Amino acid sequence: MRKYILKRILLSIVIFFFVMLIVYALMRCLPTSYIESIARQKSQQPGSKSYEEWMAQLSAMYNMDKGILAGYLGWLGDFFRGNFGDSWYYTVPVIDKFNETVWLSFVMGLIAFFFELIIAIPLGVIAATKQYSRADYAISVIALAGISLPTFFFASLLKLLFSVKLGWFDLFGLVGRSYSQLSPWGQLLDKGHHLVLPVVTLVVVSIGSLMRYTRTNMLEVLNADYIRTARAKGLSEKKVIYHHAFRNTLIPLVTIIGGSLPGLFSGALITETLYSIPGIGYTSYHAMVGGDIPFSMFYLAFLAILTLLGNLISDILYAVVDPRVRIA
Fold first, then answer.
1. What CA–CA distance (Å, rounded) separates 311 from 234?
2. What is the DSSP string of 173-199?
3. Over the stretch 82-131, which tens digit does the pLDDT of each residue have?
4. How far apart are CA 113 and CA 205, in angstroms?
5. d(CA 312, CA 286)
6. Helix 196-222 to helix 134-148 angle, to the nearest 10 degrees?
7. Which of 62, 53, 54, 22 is nearest to 38 (CA)?
8. What does the alpha-carbon distance between residue 317 and residue 315 come to, in Å, rounded to a whole number?
9. 260: helix, coil or strand?
């Protein structure tokens, strides 16, 4: 196991190198950037230098006058030394802005992930144990609806119903107008109130795939020979399902859940942007639109590391929870 983990880490480093090279090349080829915007603003000031002169000066200042490969190697060296630079759009160190926003996304993602598990897995088990029943059809419809609904469409429906029609929630933002006048407990409740619709959106658009996956795996296990043997021995249906079948269904589920854990830190870009929740997804969106290469590169590198880490966790957990799997 130790050799396998070491090999996977080394392979992940190689993959990370080439992934970020592609990302850096794409970022350098963006049609607009912070440098162009600043150069255009400064060139329009009275008595200022020309746009081309400002572009040359600012490009040299931010090491954008080098080739893509040379610039990438310079960025990579700074990245591994912990020098992430300053955000062009937010005018603060990248790591400070990241720490300010990532934990809000983590809390929101963790709450949504918890409700996703306690809703999707039991419903998937019920659908499998009552195959072709009304409950199975109803759960399948819910799952397919969750898979098919685009995030922006479902979020717009929730805002139309609960914010515009009923007035129960604000359309945008994390805090209300009277937030500063509330007690600490009241401020916490106010933030929680504003996170209800974003969390519901994340849960509904996520439970469908996990529900279907649970149902499929449960059906496969229920048709296995050892389940028929357990029933032939006279065991109760409850013990057969929850003691024998469900425990084996958890094996592939654990790998999926383990791989999803690092994603709790990645933020929900579309949901946060639609509700104007200042998490890491919302922050990175505005950084990318504003041509903020330092922050965008750091965020995309963070996502790449999370993805590689999630795949590694999934493989390790699969070997841990399934005694039939041995890594040579």
1. 41
2. -SS-TTGGGS-HHHHHHHHHHHTHHHH
3. 888 888 888 889 999 999 999 998 999 889 989 998 999 899 989 988 88
4. 11
5. 31
6. 130
7. 54
8. 6
9. helix
Pair of tokens at residue 277: 């929740």
Q: Which residue has the tokens 């717009």?
A: 156
The tokens for 142 are 């819910």
pLDDT tens track for 237-270: 888 887 778 877 777 777 777 777 777 777 788 8
Phi-psi region of 152 (alpha: psi -120 to 50; beta: other; left: phi over 0): alpha
Q: How many CA atoms, within 13 angstroms, populate the side-chain half-sphere of residue 322?
A: 18
d(CA 191, CA 171): 13
What is the C-alpha to C-alpha distance for residues 315 and 13, in angstroms, rounded to an integer? 17
| Structural tokens at position 273 | 């942007």
Q: pLDDT at residue 322 above 70?
A: no
Name residue, tokens 């598990």.
117
